[in-house]
Design a protein that fits this description.
The structure holds two protein chains of two kinds.
Chain A: E1 3-4, E2 8-13, H1 17-28, E3 33-36, H2 44-47, H3 56-61, E4 74-77, E5 85-86, H4 102-105, H5 120-128, H6 146-160, E6 168-169, E7 172-173, H7 197-208, E8 214-215, E9 225-226, E10 232-233, H8 255-258, H9 260-263, E11 269-273, E12 276-282, E13 289-295, E14 301-311, H10 315-324, E15 342-345, E16 348-355, E17 374-376, E18 395-399, H11 421-430, E19 434-435, E20 441-443, E21 452-460, E22 466-471, H12 476-495, E23 500-504, E24 521-523, E25 547-549, H13 564-582
Helix pairs in contact in A: 1-13, 6-13
Chain B: H1 5-12, E1 25-27, H2 54-67, H3 77-80, H4 82-90, H5 121-139, H6 150-162, H7 172-188, H8 200-205
The chains are: A alpha+beta, B mainly alpha.
Chain lengths: ~600, ~250
């Protein structure tokens, strides 16, 4: 029997970055807010204290802080002619679980997208003509512009204490920063992080080749910082245990280190952890959400009525909950109709490893942080003329090596045996003198008609719900992009003085076993037209006006940057629209 | 609708280390905290096999010693404890595929779809070692793998890797990949898990271990970091042994 809880003004599904931002904004407005989180409460003292946080086996190899596939997973296939099979253990991406969401175990690379990224279809069509785009590519404009969300990027960066160097201050290009970025209204709140040897060597080589390298914007603190909410972060200690780990030192921006200490003390906020929302409930018209149903760890089912529902789970789970709740028209790639599940994307990643003379180079690769690095942006977005190359999109590239953890970071030159005495001596001889950027080339992934999400017809999760089915592969446009970018990256690694390099292009078919990034995007995209978007420019559902859907599921296609800065800015933008427009006059904020 | 209590408790709890069963809770008013809330890792204790039989343990030690052979500077996989590491891991959540998705049907797909095995690592090792033993005894005059000459062991490993050696009752290539991965992980993991004894692997490559503050070193470019490695539980010379001068 379902037990009914007292009504709240707002129910938030998932207490990660966007859920925490929304909760803080809406409690500031005086609303009574409850957040329901599938995973456990997490913080440094309990889950990743500095006396045993540096455990590669536990956190990275055995996935301590992530969703267990036994709780729920996805099925995967490359194309519609295959049978999708379940992802039984994580590989290509690592879905989060618990309070803080991906903000607990991210690297904290805190990028803004380019102004042209938000008007992509219009921009590319104007510059190259409609015929330049592949016919099955389904990119579109976001319905919001860079200038509109710039103040919200700024708010997130000041919340996080992002360390970086401005490249464009109110239209003035700044030496040492990224000259391609959109204009920012003020400098970063913190100076850039110090850089290890190999990262500075990359910058030097890039400069000599005519590029303009700059420090990667980082949510790892270059110095102690007190944010506008009064929460303090400590300086990063460059321990090299950032991505896939929590920060034992409270030096990495996360909901825990920036918002939650303030939020949980508010009398109009309450969070439930280890409770999984199974459905967004709607009234008979189907146009108004009445709240949510969730199940706790003892198997008890509860109904939480609320006037406003904020869906802020991970990308794929946002889409799943919309489908399971019957909200929005499911996408059908054959008829090319419907929106829920449409324009699903990931990232196009590759790497080049550089092997250097160990008598001359000692990189101490273990001294690093998650978002440290020197990058160039000459080949991102439409920062270069794509005309001669026959593809669109691009990415940043850089020496962004985050660690020298030895289970995963024992690079050996091509041709080395995988075991035995020759392998062992190659590991010994190359560990300190090798550059292994990891996600050295971080490219865009544009949307296509045949890449989408829907409900799997046969596999179920522990609650008996259908798993989400991913149908995804790399298209020729992204593979061409990656080959071009990887070759440029290799030139810079060689110019650093590498004795030899190992180029690992991204190749098809898309492989679920090899880590790329956790930047799954799309499936419930924002836009100006309800026929091709699930939510309007304020992240409000076209179908259910008291439902707002946060996160990277809103991205119509993915740019060549990490998504967190943009999805957090959109959350602030949406919160502002709720506070200044929706609450005064509840109903659709956009009429078409 | 009512979901079974036991199923949900088992499904949402974490089982790494000591494992703290997660229960639904309410967070309001203050940050949740209780003394002893963390779950530090439990050190592996030396001693007899927990998962392996003696014969299986001897075979794994011999495999570890050929995958990572000893040299004049650094011990091999056997002496470093990779077999103990694997034994203890197989006796724990890893061996049982705990937390992974193990619901049917188990269909064969393309390799990009990842492993689709109903059997977890514990079963795969049991079957793989038995199959390897049968192969060795049939091909090498009744001898077990551990009793073979190094050249013969290496030839078998190379044959499994290239799939030119076929085992009866197990997929030889899958067994090879599993063993290779686990032997090397045990060699480089924190010594608290039973391998990498005295941090020999970290010493070999120059990795200083479970440190967390390099602020004094971030700006010292192209200099060798001078301090020896340290594990989660410290270092043996932090706890002097009885006899003076002993290591």
């Amino acid at each position: 029997m379902t037990r009914k809880l007292p009504r709240k003004d707002v129910v938030i599904i998932g207490l990660g970055w966007t859920g925490s931002i929304m909760a803080n904004e809406l409690t500031d407005e005086g609303l009574d807010v409850v957040a329901i989180e599938r995973g456990p409460w997490r913080d440094a003292a309990i889950d990743f204290p500095p006396n045993y946080d540096q455990d590669e086996l536990r956190y990275r190899i055995r996935h301590e802080l992530f969703l267990r596939p036994d709780q729920t997973t996805f099925t995967f296939r490359n194309n519609m002619s295959q049978t999708a099979l379940p992802i039984r253990t994580w590989g290509a991406f690592m879905p989060p679980n618990g309070v803080g969401g991906g903000g607990v175990h991210w690297n904290a690379e805190t990028w803004r997208f380019l102004p042209s990224d938000f008007v992509l279809k219009t921009h590319l069509t104007e510059r190259y003509g409609a015929g330049f785009l592949p016919p099955d590519m389904t990119i579109q404009d976001w319905g919001v512009t860079y200038d509109e969300i710039e103040p919200y990027y700024d708010r997130f960066e000041y919340l996080c204490g992002t360390s970086g160097l401005a490249g464009n201050l109110n239209g003035q290009i700044q030496a040492g920063g990224n000259p391609f970025e959109g204009p920012r209204s003020r400098p970063y709140p913190n100076p850039p992080q110090a850089q290890p040897f190999s990262h500075t060597l990359f910058a030097k080589a890039a400069r000599e080749l005519g590029y303009k390298p700059f420090p990667q914007p980082s949510g790892n603190m270059s110095q102690a910082y007190k944010n506008p909410l009064g929460v303090r972060l400590g300086p990063c200690t460059y321990c090299g245990f950032c991505e896939w780990f929590g920060c034992g030192n409270n030096s990495k921006a996360s909901p825990q280190t920036t918002i939650l200490p303030v939020l949980v003390r508010k009398s109009n906020f309450l969070a439930r952890d280890n409770c999984e929302v199974t459905r967004i409930n709607t009234d008979r018209s189907g146009k108004r959400a009445t709240g949510v149903t969730f199940v706790d760890t003892s198997g008890e089912e509860w109904e939480q009525p609320a006037d406003l529902v904020i869906l802020s789970a991970y990308t794929v789970f946002n889409v799943q909950l919309l489908l399971l709740s019957g909200i929005g028209k499911p996408y059908d790639p054959i008829a090319n109709e419907g929106v829920i599940g449409r324009n699903f994307t990931h990232q196009t990643i590759s790497d080049v490893t550089g092997f250097f003379d160990k008598a001359k180079f000692n990189f101490n690769p273990f001294i690093a942080s998650g978002a440290i690095g020197m990058c160039i942006d000459e080949f991102n977005g439409d920062n270069f003329d794509h005309g001669p190359h026959g593809f669109v999109g691009g990415g940043y590239m850089g020496q962004v090596q985050t660690n020298g953890r030895p289970i995963e970071t024992t690079p050996v030159p091509a041709g080395t045996p995988r075991w035995g005495a020759a392998w062992k001596s190659a590991v010994r001889d190359n560990y300190l003198s090798t550059v292994k950027p990891g996600t050295g080339v971080h490219g865009s992934f544009y949307s296509y008609r045949d890449i989408y999400l829907d409900l799997d017809p046969s596999y179920k999760d522990r609650l008996g719900r259908p798993l989400m089915r991913m149908t995804i592969d790399f298209h020729e446009n992204e593979l061409k992009q990656n080959a071009f970018l990887t070759d440029r990256f290799d030139e810079i690694i060689k110019a650093m003085g590498a004795r030899e390099t190992l180029k690992e292009y991204r190749k098809g078919p898309y492989d679920i076993t090899k880590y790329q990034t956790t930047h799954l995007c799309g499936g419930a995209v924002m836009g100006a037209e309800p026929s091709v978007s699930a939510i309007n420019r304020y992240l409000q559902s076209w179908d259910v006006s008291n439902l707002f859907v946060m996160g990277a599921s809103a991205f119509p296609q993915n740019a060549g940057y990490n998504p967190t800065g943009t999805l957090a800015a959109l959350a602030y933008w949406s919160a502002d629209a709720i506070r200044t427009q929706y609450l005064r006059n509840p109903g659709p904020l956009v009429h078409v | 609708m009512h979901f079974g209590r036991r199923e949900l408790l088992l499904s949402t709890a974490l089982f790494i280390g000591r494992g703290v069963a997660a229960r639904a809770g309410v967070i309001a008013g203050q940050l949740p905290w209780r003394p002893g809330a963390g779950a530090p890792p439990e050190p592996v204790l030396p001693g007899s096999w927990v998962f392996f039989t003696d014969a299986e343990g001897a075979a794994i030690e011999a495999l570890a010693e050929r995958i990572i052979p000893p040299d004049s500077d650094t011990p091999g996989g056997k002496e470093a404890g990779s077999a103990i590491f694997i034994d203890r891991q197989l006796a724990g959540p890893y061996g049982r595929q705990e937390g992974l998705y193990v619901r049917p049907p188990f269909l064969k797909g393309v390799k990009e779809q990842g492993p689709q095995d109903e059997a977890g690592p514990a079963q795969q090792y049991r079957a793989g070692l038995a199959a390897l033993d049968r192969y060795c005894r049939a091909s090498y005059g009744g001898k077990a793998f551990a009793e073979l000459a190094d050249a013969d062991k290496d030839a078998i490993l190379a044959g499994l890797e290239s799939a030119s050696v076929k085992l009866d009752g197990a997929d030889g290539k899958t067994f090879f990949e599993l063993t290779l991965k686990d032997v090397q992980q045990g060699f480089f993991a924190d010594p608290i898990y039973g391998g990498n004894r005295d941090m020999v692997a970290w010493r070999m490559i120059g990795y200083p271990g479970a440190r967390y503050d390099y602020r004094d070193w971030i700006g010292r470019h192209n200099e060798r970091f001078p301090l020896p490695p340290v594990g989660i539980t410290g270092r043996s010379d932090w706890t002097p042994r009885k006899a003076e001068g002993s290591k």
